[in-house]
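Follow-up to my earlier ticket, as requested here are the two runs.
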Amino acid sequence: MNRVLHLPTAVGNHGYSLACEERKVGYESDSMIVGRNNFNFKTHKHISIGRGKMHRILNYPRLYFEYKKISNSYDVLHFNFSKSLIDIPKLGLEYWDLERYPSSIIKVATHNGSDVRDERAFSDNPYSPFHNKNLYPSSSYETRRKKNEIFHSHMQHIFVLNPDLLNCVPSNKSTFLPYIKNAWHDKPNICNDLFKNKVVRIVHAPTNRDIKGSDHVIAAVDRLKNKGYNVELVLIEGLNHKDALKCYATADIVVDQLRVGWYGGFALEVARLRKPVITYIHSSYLNNIKDEEFKSGVRNSFISATPETIFECLEKCITDTNYSKYKADQLYDFVEYHHDPQRVIKQVTDVYQRLLELRG
């Protein structure tokens, strides 16, 4: 039985979700978080080393011990967020462990977004927040690109969770992978009671207001109120996952993001509550995906809006509730099929098997 370890960050709880699904199809898979776990995501192992580079330096002996243990325990190492176990550039230990694992170990990576995204990803997206040179200077992208070139050189395959990221990774060994959520198997509180109250509740849960275009959402809701609509905007920030889900369940309309050009993992969770989701889908990102059925599903299920059209989009959802309910049902069906963990995990294990067979 092949052994897989997902490491080392908690970003999106993606590693744990993959490990759990891999166990169901016969792999001995584990997940390990090294460092912070701010949202208390589930994991099979957590190495807490404090915040900042100094803590990582002081914990180097502990990480080295873990490196030795991993080297003798796994067939596949699946890294995430452009991180490895021992990555301390200030000590000359940039990706130190990656070139030292036994050659028999397969190394795979998943990119989540900002860990690899640079100008190549968003050059044709006029709404992208990453054009702002004051917040995201070109030098930072150059540094990120050079670091990832080293990271990619050690990987035998790379998955990306957003299709725009395919522009930033080696095309000969990279594929798009739909989001996967371990909480999928918890029975969702499916809500068919949209618009049952006098006040229409619009929910928006930004992890970063600038990136998600929150100011445009707030302005659009203010315009709706000024026009006489009985609406309220609920901004969900800083809540733990359990409490956030309770808030999502009260929504009539959900706004994901208006600038990035793709939907996030948050959209999957509210989709399974049968909520209509507004999010900006950039056409060129869709073109990066080869699966025509998937592309069609995205187009037909999400309600796409930009900072310029969000007011009209929200107004339509409020005035035509049948349209909103129809979109909620369409999105539910799309997510249930294309983000089904069993369907997603097959893409991952097919890559594992191919690489393990090549290893011999």
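Run two:
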Amino acid sequence: MTILIQCEAENERMVFALSCPTLSPQKIDWIPFVHTFKQIFSAEYVNEIAVRHGFKKRNRKMKPEDFIALCALYNEETGVKPLSQLCATLYDVKKVNITGEALNQRFNKQAVAFLKAMFQSLFQKQLSDSLFPIESLPFHRIRILDSTGFKTPTDDPDTGYQGCAQPSLKVQVEYEMKQGEFLHLDIRNGKEHDAMYAAALLNTVQPGDLLLRDLGYFSLEGLEAIHQQGGYYISRVKHNVKIYRTKDRTEEPKCAEDFMKELAPGETMEVRNVYISQKRMPQPRLILYRLTEQQERAREEKWEQRQKKMKHTSKHRQTHPIYAYITNTSAEDIGKEAVYPLYSLHGKLKFCLKYGSRFFGFTGLKK
């Protein structure tokens, strides 16, 4: 059972299949999303959104919050269960007794608008709830770019989207923090490198923009282009990137971990006017942050969970408890201690994309 959602991308009309999941108590890897959803939205708020988008026109057995629970909070393989099983789930969990035909009629354009509005509300709430004083920063816009991927059917060679292992697409999302709005949302080939998409957005940079970029979008040439257009950036760099203090070709390079002895856990240091990589691209500020012991443990736990899902482990993985950032912002605008927490807002966008994709349950793609 699916709902088709159309959107324009790369001069093609794409159709997503929005599917309805059923209950699976064993799968709890997106419990943080569920908890966040329940903490943010009351039944009254959900009902208000449902009325506003035409999903609720009169009182019914299945309330808007029941529909949200069925579509978003019961984690299971989507798009494969019959209506009778979905009705059984509603009755078992919510004590809502409706027929399969009645449930089928609820999956309409108004339901799509309702779900989209709820997801956007969640997105904005997650990214706006920050202890960092965004409004006080002297930038025109604060732009965060990230992506998430979806696999496409392997038995349909006409989809035109390629991935590393099987056909896939990538959804690129750029969000502006100050106004709380989406700047870009594009569907791209799953095999396309993130840096290529970032390069395509360079002509949208305005003077006074601050761009937060993850490692996947890293390009020294791209950062230089942002600077030349009057924009600002904070970008992570790899732990093993070569760092030089001068242009002297005889100078031995350092890497971020060479500064470990100078940093206590949770401490930040700044190195002014460095040169990055073998290209020796000048950078006004290099910010180094050493993770706390608690942050290291949390990162290790996430890595172990990811390895279990991938069904293999690496015995030779090295831990790198230091993050390195380069930025062309001034110390007056953003002090060195503010770089790590400001950049961490990028993680909130990643959280929303990861679990928001399950909210919509994208399972298919057709031309």
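The only thing I checked on run two: Residues 2-126 form one domain. Let me know what else you need.
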